[in-house]
Amino acid sequence: MDEQYDVIVLGTGLTECILSGLLSVEGKKVLHIDRNDYYGGESASLNLTQLYRKFRSGAEPPSELGKDRDYNIDQIPKFMMASGELVRILTHTDVTKYLEFKQISGSFVYRDGKISKVPASEMEAVRSPLMGLFEKRRAKKFFEYMQNWREDDPSTHQGLDINTVPMSAVYEKFGLEPGTQDFIGHAMALYLDDSYLTRTARESYDRIILYISSVARYGKSPYIYPLYGLGELPQGFARLSAIYGGTYMLDKPVDEIVYDANGKVCGVRSGDETAATKQVIGDPSYFPNKVRKIGQVVRAICLLNHPIPNTDDADSIQLVIPQNQIGRKHDIYIASVSGTHNVCAKGYYLAIVSTIVETDNPEAEIKHGLDLLGPCVEKFINVTDLEEPFEDGSKDQVFISRSYDATSHFGTVCEDVKSIYKRVTGQDLVLKQRAKDEEQAE
């Protein structure tokens, strides 16, 4: 291990594995270390025995649930936007060849005490119970405006400069009701809270167009999901890194981050071995004195033997409960997948309910979500700290990722990847489809 590397990456969470893959492809010499004996860190998928070991202090899972190999249970559930950044990163690096994806059947929103499908087409919008007749007309005009808007054609702007006016002004112009604003802002633009209303409308425009274009790709919903669970993603990027010369060491303790006389990182020590490097990337768990806690996320992993009620028996859904509907400051997210995604035994469904913690009774905060699931066969509650680095890493060349938040999609993870990539390399991450040169590299 006593070698010189360009970058040492600590932890095999998804953020770290994507960066490791991207930097290896760029020709950097990368060493990737994880104290665990499996890939994925916080974003690993667990089998049944691992799940019970983690949450039931070593209890054996009931035999009627099926075999270990039938289960790949995400600790941090997230779906991918079909036209989103993560899909573009996967295509850019050609990691798609290691993975198979399946579409998520529906996107739903909780409104006025009921679950309603977020319309995926004009026909669905016309029939949707989310809006009355006149509101549907106003919403149609709003979506037409969004889809016709062109930066360089003022005739499409209708007197609004979305680069300067807040999103609230756009809603106001089209006279949209608070409930409609709720489902556009939270179930389509996927904001965690309402602070977006005061920010420039351009940000919301980009998110809404991403949602619409993702739905257009496959029809039923904007989301896709890897067969065998999200744990496949870090492993795909790890394989990419290895093809380009990256070195992986699992089950390797990290005892010390070594700094030079100027306070810059110069190595990582494990036992009596030290690997030299100029830059280190890692997740917050490796740097307890360099991160601050900014909140907590509560997640309930629920095993069901039936689809979630009132979702047309869908085998997989995303359901957003907007904060305003239940008097909270943050939305509640429900991500559900099933045996058809090879993540649980046939006939079973996994539903994971998550939100940002606001009180000292986290489980009570997700009650609204749990109540919508119907009876659970098993339920595992997990509360994790949300952490972020104090500094951006420019002084000591140590770049720390942020914890995975409560959102049920990868937007915030991709923002973090792009931000760290720029700080490490000094350049923006430019995504394009890569020439298929990996076969030669092998």
Task: Record the SSE blueprint.
Layout: E1 4-10, H1 14-25, E2 30-33, E3 45-46, H2 48-55, E4 73-74, E5 80-81, H3 85-93, E6 101-103, E7 106-111, E8 114-117, H4 122-127, H5 133-148, H6 167-174, H7 178-188, H8 201-218, E9 223-226, H9 232-243, E10 247-249, E11 256-259, E12 265-270, E13 273-282, E14 291-304, E15 317-321, H10 323-326, E16 332-338, E17 349-356, H11 362-365, H12 367-371, E18 378-389, E19 398-400, H13 411-425, H14 438-441
Parallel strand pairs: 1-2, 1-13, 2-10, 7-15, 13-19
Antiparallel strand pairs: 3-4, 5-9, 6-9, 7-8, 11-12, 12-13, 14-17, 14-18, 15-16, 16-17
GO biological process, one term: vesicle-mediated transport
Protein name: Rab GDP dissociation inhibitor
Pfam family, one: GDI
What spatial form do the alpha-carbon principal axes imply?
globular
Distance between the termini: 23 Å
Q: Helix count, per DSSP? A: 14
| Strand tally | 19
| Radius of gyration over C-alpha positions, nearest whole angstrom | 22 Å
Instruction: Give the name of the CATH superfamily of the domain at 4-43 and 231-291 and 387-432.
Output: FAD/NAD(P)-binding domain
Mean pLDDT: 91
Strand content: 15-25%
Give the helix proportion (percent range).
25-40%
The helix/strand class is alpha/beta
Pfam families: GDI
GO molecular function: Rab GDP-dissociation inhibitor activity
Protein name: Rab GDP dissociation inhibitor
Family: Belongs to the Rab GDI family.
